[in-house]
Every structure is written in structure tokens, then in C-alpha cells.
Amino acid sequence: MRFEGERLIAECTAYDFKQELERKKIGKWLKSVSAFADSEGGTLFWGLDNDMNVIGVANAQSDMEFISEKINAHLDPVPVYSLNPAKTKEGKIVLALSIPAGGQTPYYLNLDGRRVAYVRKGNESVPADSHELYNLVLKGSNRSWDSLVSNELREKHTFNTLERIYNERSGAKWEESLLESFGLVTEDGHLTHAGLLFVDHCPIKQSRVYCTRWAGLAKTDAINDSEYQGNLLMLLDMAKNFIKSNTAVRWYKLPDYRLNLPEYADRAVEEMCVNHLIHRDYTELGAEVAINIYDDRIVTTSPGGINSSSNLVRLNPAEITSKRRNPILAEVFSQLHYMEKRGSGLRKIQDATAMLPSYKESELPYFESSREFFYTTLLNVNYGMTDADFESLVEEEMNHGDKHTQKEQNTPTKYPQKEQNTPRKHPQKKLGKTAQAIIDAIVGNARITRSELAVLLDRSEDTIKDQLERLQARGIVERVGSDRGGYWKVHIIK
To answer: pTM for the whole thing?
Structure first.
């Protein structure tokens, strides 16, 4: 801590100020010790008023001994803490009790015959409710909800959907042993909670998604709505299909192929749905994933926020620490190539949207969180555009295609002639259905891989590779960056 004159400049995110040490009402400050240890940590200061003006304590040594004694006597387990005095230039002393987030939660306060664990909500320390206490117990035992073992036996359930999608997306062949490797089945044949979420007939009641298409910009009249319940892979497909059927793709017929101008990027939609399905709080029984589609946006919410405040706070994806509430679910979706292990899903949502032809900087997706819920908002990049706006966009893209072709003709290359991307030699040649489908898929998801295209279009990877090479040779699509970290770009050539 540091001072500016007689005022403290607090350098911690959560804190409480006390003018003096209350020796007869120790519960007033001991509950904050419990709450800080059970939450994200914090600091208690003595010798300050609520405006952080320094008042000072009268007997620092005696107060420090009293604080340590009461923490050791009334907190179970005793949290890690540090207690330090700091002196201003005028000689006034402030005591700072720093408590980091604990690893043995819950930290109970035993006082007056009561045993209570506290949590931090905003700037208050309040008793943990049953749901919060359950999660604190899981955290303290170093377990996650999805790793808990159920009473259900493997022999009574099937994993046909998981097996089919694994074979399609992983490039490997399904084996029974993978169930145990993934953490879906125990050695003695019992299903974990994660396993129950992947069986064909999922018995987890809170594994639901509510989807609604609203008329206009608010929750007034519903145009369409559906409720889906089942395993996570089914919910992912149903959610994506609902969004696809309730949003639009504007398109224009050009001389060489059709130009699609979707409202939302397919990759952004998929990343959003995956994120909310695997990172939601499944211990919360009274809330499910909800997808609300308005004229100008899609808002998806799920129980289990990452912000300690009860208020809704806008988040910066670059500053969010990747914490997997359900690590087994995340690992399975990673093996299915729905997500990467690095936890970059939020940035991918923004990146995929930014690649849409009609995207503007004001339409960047954003994320919000309270203590209870997490929100993702995708903005409709076509909302508010007129016919003239679309025609201007098409003309601009076609002109850009001409410039791109001219640049390729005039720029020397270090590669052999046979590897150059030359302008197309047959201007009147039309694209086949597979080539057009590839272009449509790339417009919706610029980072789509060859294997994903093969699954999406029901073609072999060799066919997809051949089609992409032809499209590149004609200057219609371009690969920007590496095979692993790059993306596809579509060029309109007159």
C-alpha cells in the first residue's frame, strides 16, 4: 500500500476499511476474512475512514496480536494471511490484513455457537447460500462438478452420438477405452456427471437450451421459440440450427458465383454456443442456457458468471483468465475440434465476426458477466443497411478483387511458376456446387479447416483439397497465414 499525504491509495481489488479494531464485535470483521478467503481474496484496513483518509490506530502491536489470535481461534480452516503495519510521514499507523483466495474452501467462521461460511458480493460479506456452499466444497476438495461420480452404470447407456461425431471430426477411430480416458466412465463402470451429459438419452434435467426469436428489439412478441433437452452434442446442433433458421443470409448473383452476406458468422455462432454449454454452472438447477434472437442482435446467457459483483460488467477478452469450470467437458469438446485448449474462444467470436463482408467496428461482439450469469452478444452486421448500402458493398468488393488480381500480376514472386496463383483463364466458367458450397462456408467461417469442410459438405478431404487448390488458382480464395493459425479470404473477380 502507499499513501498520498494523509490518504491511502489502495492497490487491491477488494477491501474493507475500519476506523478502529472492534474487540467486542469481532464478527463484523472476521466475516470479511472468511469471505475474502472463500472468494477472490482481499484486504482489511484499520485506521482509515470510508474515504480512505488516514486516522491511524492507537496501539498497533496490541491490535496485531489480537487480530491474529481471533483469526486462529475462530476460522476453520485458518486461511493464509499477512498482517503488516504501514506508517505515514506524519507517523500515523495503518494496519493491513491481506487474505488471498483460499485453496481449502469453505472457510467457516465459528462464533456464538454458529458455523457459517461467507462469500463476497459486491462490497459486502454475506453468508454463502446452499448453492454457493456446494461449490465451495467442490473447490476445496479440488474437484469439479463434471468429475463427480454418479450411480449410473455404463452398461445401461449408449454413446452413439459421441462415437459418430468423434469419427467425423477427430480423424481417428472411436474406441471404448476413450470413455475412461476422457473421464466419462470410471474404472468400475460408473458414469461421471460429464459422462451423463454425453449419453444418448441424457438424464441431467438442467441440460437444456431455451431459444426464442423475438419480433423487434425487445422481448415483446415471440415469432418462434423452442426448448431443447438432451446431451450436449445434440444441444449444440439444435441451438445452431435454430439460429440459422431464424437469421438471414443476403446474397447477390455475380458473374462467377454467388456472394453471401450473412448477418452472423457461423464460426462465431458455434463458438458462442460451445462456450455457454461447457462453461455454464451445472450446479445451478433453476436456470439454463438461453438464446434470444432480436432484429439487431443475438444474446446468449448461461448460469455461472466470472465476476464477483452482482452488477453486470463488460469484459475484455484479453484480460479474462481462462478458468474451466468443467474441465472434462472442455477436454472432450477439444478432442472433437470444437474448441482449442488455450481458451481463446471469446477472441475467436470477435475475429470471426470481423471477417464478415459487411462488418463495421461498431459491431464487434461483446461479453458481460455478473456473479450469477455470463452474457454473449453478437451484433447483426447487416442491421440498418439499405439496398444502396449493399450494392455499394458489392461494388467495393468487386473493385477490390480487380486490384488484388492486378497486384498478383505485377508483383514478383520467389516461388516456381507452377505454384503461382494466376488470374483465372476461363472467365465464363461457372463454379460447381461443391466449389460454391466451399465459398459459402468460408464466408460464414473464415477459419474453417479442410477436415471441417469435409464433414460439413459430406465430401472426402482429398476432394476438398482439390477444390480449394482450383479456387486458389483462379484467384477466388486466398489462404492468409499458416495452415494452422491462418484464415481464408474470398475475392470477388469480375
So the answer is: 0.75
